[in-house]
Amino acid sequence: MASIIEIKGLTKVYASGFQALKGVDLTIEEGEIFALLGPNGAGKTTMISIICGIARASGGSVTVAGHDIIADYRGARTAIGLVPQELSTDQFERVIDTVTLSRGIFGKPRDDAYVEKILRDLSLWDKRNNKILELSGGMKRRVMIAKALSHEPRVLFLDEPTAGVDVELRRDMWKLIGELRQTGVTIILTTHYIEEAEEMADRVGVINRGELMLVEEKTALMKKLGKKTLSVVLTDPIETVPVELADWNVTLGADGHEIEYVFDTQAERTGVSSLLRKLGDLSIAYKDLNTKQSSLEDIFVELVHQEKAA
Amino acid sequence: MSLQNFRAIASIYKFELHRFRRTWLTGLLVPVITTTLYFVVFGGAIGSRMTQVDGIPYAAFIVPGLIMMSMLTESIFNASFGIYMPKFTGTIYELLSAPISATETVIAYVGAAATKSLIVGTIIFLTAHLFVDIHVAHPFAMAGFMLLIAISFCLFGFILGIWAQGFEQLQVIPLLVVTPLTFLGGAFYSVHMLADPWRTMTLFNPIVYLISGFRWTFFGRGDVGIEYSLLFVAAMLAVCLTIIGWMFRTGYRLKK
């Protein structure tokens, strides 16, 4: 895959002296869904704002589709569609008018058929003649996506697309993003919902306090940092963990009905088979086994903690 | 100066005029009613007791001042509101992230605001015809002068809209500075009617030069020479363009 965005040494210091970005390097591949994950105030929005031309970088460089965002801002911005976090719309205007305006501002010739297609894809066609203030929050978010897609961008930025959106709408949005991806557009989304990154992203970048802590394929990240928990459901409950199991550092759960063992999936010896053998030797009978993968949330919490400890 | 995204200019210009069209009834009625009121009060009630001013019937004499007064207010209001609203609602993100240069942005917004204030000026001019016979000495100069005034005050309003951080700031300059200066700038009287030191002091009021110049296009004479009026408009254009250039270069109150 060819890269579509190249970020090198990007820094941002606000007038207040606050350092929002501390030298970020990142390459985004064309056609992927990249999730930028981080707590509030981590620098996610600042980074997007700089790439899109809303904020100025203090240092470093960014190219989008080969165009420098400063020297060739027209080329770079033509390739980008932006859906900001805040619901900012021309409340008194009709849906179709604002979408048509967006296309014009980005220098594209009028194309009613294309605008219709976008509005239909986003289930907005029936509402095209409504004033935006008459729409629900979820629909307004769709209008903003329609505006961002109106000029056929190659990259779509979604800044917290599901912030403050109910569960059903969030599922809707995920489905929508999945469909957008089919059209070949590269999607970069920020979120602090781990679930969201886990559900959709191909790659995940974790940003905290202006630093990109890691960038990984989502599945690789899960594997690399993923711990699994093995639960052994016992036939008869036990009161204490036998000393013979001290090497595995197991804990007792479910009132003595379960033994839980946390292991690293990447380790050469996970210790699972030896544990089971040992249970056999000790004549501890079991009737079921479960393993559970840790979620991105666990991984993320761990990463942030590691950094705090360092 | 970077000019190439003409579609963006056309789109914003159309969109802004569309915004005005939505309120066309008040937009058109207000200047007509205001002008009528001024004619009833100044032209009819007071003017009937006055002789001529500078050899011109009083009712006719006030016409350029009236047009100028409305156009200044309209220009500042429309242009400042046009750019302030996207800042206020947050929709400015789209403008900042679009492949559009500062020059193109200014042409689109200022062009739309100036168009509206030219329409208002024309309506007042036509309404005035209902009340008084006006013979315009230099019609082309009059149209040109109106255009220059509309553009320069819309530029001024645009600066105000970028500077303003609240609705109060948006109102304070037009209400506390421009309107008083217009009243004191000879909209309803000739500067020659004042005694010194007021007369000399009045010459420091920039609006005097605008009204005087506009009056010259109507009657062939004004309080000061037409060259001074043109010089003033040119200076104002230059200052406004310089400030706007600086605002976009530094991202003043536009970009973080």
- Number of structural units classed as domains of chain A: 2
This entry's quaternary arrangement is: heterodimer
Instruction: Tell me, briefly, the overall form of chain A.
Output: elongated
* Biggest sheet record of chain B: none
Biggest sheet: strand arrangement of chain A: 6-7-8-3-9-10
Q: How many domains make up the coordinates of chain B?
A: 1
Give the structural class of chain A.
alpha/beta
Total count of helical runs of at least 4 residues of chain A: 10
Task: Give the % helix of chain A.
Answer: 25-40%
What is the name of the CATH architecture of the largest domain in chain A? 3-Layer(aba) Sandwich
Low-confidence stretches of chain B: none
Q: At the fourth CATH level, what is the homologous superfamily of the largest domain in chain A? A: P-loop containing nucleotide triphosphate hydrolases
Keywords (chain B): Cell membrane, Membrane, Transmembrane, Transmembrane helix, Transport
Family (chain B): Belongs to the ABC-2 integral membrane protein family.
Protein name (chain B): Transport permease protein
Membrane topology (chain B): Multi-pass membrane protein
